[in-house]
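Supplementary notes (optional reading)

For those who missed the lab, this is the record we used. Protein: Conjugal transfer protein TraF. Length: 431 residues.
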Amino acid sequence: MKSVGIAAAVGAALFSCASLAAPGFVDAGPNLSDNGASGAWTSLYATRNPAGSEFAIAPDASFRMGILSSIGIGMEVGPVDNFSDEIDDLTDALDRDDLTLSEGNALVERFNAILDPLSRDGYVKVHGGVQVPLFPMLYRSSLGVFTLDANLSAQARLGLLDAPLTYNSVSEEVETASAAYVKAGQVNEIALGYSRPVWQQPGRRVIVGGSLRYLQAKLSKQVVALESIEDDEDVQDVLEDSYDANERKSSNVTVDIGAIYDADNYRVGVTLANLTEPDFEYGAIGANCELLSGSAQYNCFSAAYFSNRIALNETWTLERLATVEGALFFASGRGSLAASVDLNDVHDPVGDLNQNAKVALGYKTQTNWLPDLRVGYRKNLAGSELSSASLGFTFFGAVHFDVSCSLESTDIDGSSVPRTAAFNLGFEMSY
């Protein structure tokens, strides 16, 4: 499928220039399937709720680290059938200079009927995350659990800005101001966390934690006029070539805090993330076009043309997010039923709204002959409102593999495919 090729190609490009890390847009490691507060499947639980590091390392262990804790990629498409194919067909039509009147009018009728829904609902989005090798690192002492993490996350989104298609009988061409709109973000993160119990009685205790996070964001956006796309290029080429155009780098610091009430057979927690709500700037578009030349100038004027529909100067705010979670344990703690819900919506770097509700069922076999198993369900309560199911395994207590697939579908090349899918693979150790 073409959209799968886009995800793979752009995912590789997003990470090829990366060094360190950022907040995960694909939930890291088993967090993709283990959607609640069920605990020590992975050291990466400490990256969700800072108090969770108490459960991300065994009580009798002094040190835990990742080998390659998580590498994952995902994709999402809008509720429009054959979005990328329709854009490719339109760019092919714009390349022709031998259209008869009947051919030109037929193309005008075809595309003017679909440009509005393509622009309103159509998009291709890829996102991914990777932990820096050996991270996160957790150290347990008499003072509490200390965590050091380094990771990278990235997103790219391609949409359409539509304008009417017309036929020019003199040049025998169809013409339009329609353009592809590409936004991308890469966030590198280093985080230092700490947690410890602050109150306890037999069978119950309260753990609190905090995390200081340094974030470096590289944000970019670009408007690419469809008439400027070369004959041998398609949507995949546009997304690959334009995701880092007009890139701007900025850095900031924020803080997360969390608390967990832990009892023998259940656990509840709360996380307040991004307390300082740091801002990051996009590179500007649609300005000083006279200083450019060629396709760069063409695209600059195209961005200015759509200034009433998009922001030429934009800031992304990593908004404050509150999350509550809980879990019930059974089978002597080997099984868990867990859930979490975000109490507010937030924008991701490419502008989409996210507010997740999640539930998961897991079972730890405590044997190397059978893998640990987890299944999950999540729904975005804002934005796309997509729902997805997930399945994860942990082999030999160290190797994690998780996949997620949406319950909604769209048609691509005549086949029904899920609107979103993701996977994670990781390996970590404890001693």
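If you only remember one thing from this example: The first helix runs from residue 2 to 16.
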